[in-house]
Amino acid sequence: MSKISDKQVNDPEALGNVTSQYGGVQASASTAHDAVFGEITEDGPNYRNLGFWGTCVLMMKTQFGMGVLSIPATFDTLGIIPGVICLLTVGVMTTWSIYIIGAFKRRHPEIYSIDDAGFKMFGVVGREILGFAYCINWIFVSASGMLSISIALNATTNHGACTAIFVALAAIVGFVLSSVRTLGRMTWLAWAALTSILTAILALTIAVGIQARPDAAPQSGPWSSDWKLTNNPSFPDAVSAVASQLFAYGGVPGFFAIVAEMRDPKQYTRAMAVCQSVVSIFYLGIGVVVYYFCGSYVSSPALGSAGAMMKKVCYGLALPSLVFSVLLLTHMPAKWLFIRLLRDTPHLTSNTPRHWLTWLACTFFTNITAYVIASGIPIFNSLISLVGALLGTLLCLQPMGCMWLYDNWGSTRERKRDLRWRLGVAWAVFVVCAGTFIMGLGTYGSVRGIVDAYHSEGGSGSWSCRDNSNST
């Protein structure tokens, strides 16, 4: 096995040395060792090759995916004012959670994913519970991405083939593309994907502002948008809507993997601030404008709200982004499983037969599982509500509150237990309690929605050939 060259060790563009305090690469003249990946050589992938702007775009794309398409519908449930307040609250809470990920990684460089944090805080039980939730969450979200691709293909081709075929095609493409082994090699695709989804949503926003009425509204007779400043939903429906908003910010657990592959993790906080600022501005603008012009006739996914022609245009523009989402969302659990299987072995960073067989097996497993879920629960809105409530909160909020308490509760050397410390404790406890509350009631509301939808459809949605691009 060949060592990395002196040029690679000393060139941050080639390897990305960072100080050992931040959990980075410890390099000598002949070798480099990462706290997570182990010895990095020329014989394998360079897992530490993610620059600042690549980090920003991957963060934004991890957040800015299918979840944004459900935000106008949550405003229909809650009303604009409560919807905006809830969305801002969720944004603040998840931004804090993302910051805590970087701080925890800085203190504990051996952390790769949320299961490692769970092991440090709660032992083997914490590792297994959070690891299982992490893997299943991303697989479910990947399934939602496959559904989105099938919706886009149905919309752009006028239901040119059986929907089950489109979902299978999405799974095949996902397997091929998600087999790229490092995040650093995905950044140029991430830029194209981010441009794709932003263009599609801006086109939608402009279209709903200039057209006479949305596609789902009555097409004859007088019509005006029935948007509401406030609404009076049932309690489970309201919590389910908040869970959908949390799903829009649900890329939080993926930031563990992103910071682990950064060349210089000291830039993490700055990249996080860029990401959350851009994402929150777009979420608010898109949610308010689309709901204002469409009212209760807003579709979910929202790209179907601007009429038949614009639906084709919007989905056509968004298709590259949807494909990349499936790529990234299946890569995350596959990489987690791969590292867990090969960690502390030379096969993790070397192009051995075992390395490749394990990696391809992991990507195949995550893709085939996501395909089964996508085909079995083909209801976009209910699926994302369920994922956001059951797994999104568990991975986005509660562990980060516990991580702050773990690092700060018994620490009196760096800081006295002053007002700032007490406020930090109160906020961390609030995040844990709020996450648990949303998880419980949101899951109930989402499951009820899935049951009602299956009853109304006679259970015929699974592995169906029916056009799913006309759902609202």
UniProtKB/TrEMBL annotation:
Keyword Kinase tagged: no
Locations listed in the record: Membrane
Membrane topology: Multi-pass membrane protein
Primary localization class, coarse: membrane
Domain Amino acid transporter transmembrane, chain residue ranges per copy: 50-447
Keyword annotations of the record: Membrane, Transmembrane, Transmembrane helix
Ranges that cross the membrane: 50-73, 79-101, 129-152, 158-177, 189-210, 238-259, 271-293, 313-334, 355-377, 383-406, 427-447
Record family assignment: Belongs to the amino acid/polyamine transporter 2 family.
Protein name, UniProt field: Transmembrane amino acid transporter protein-domain-containing protein
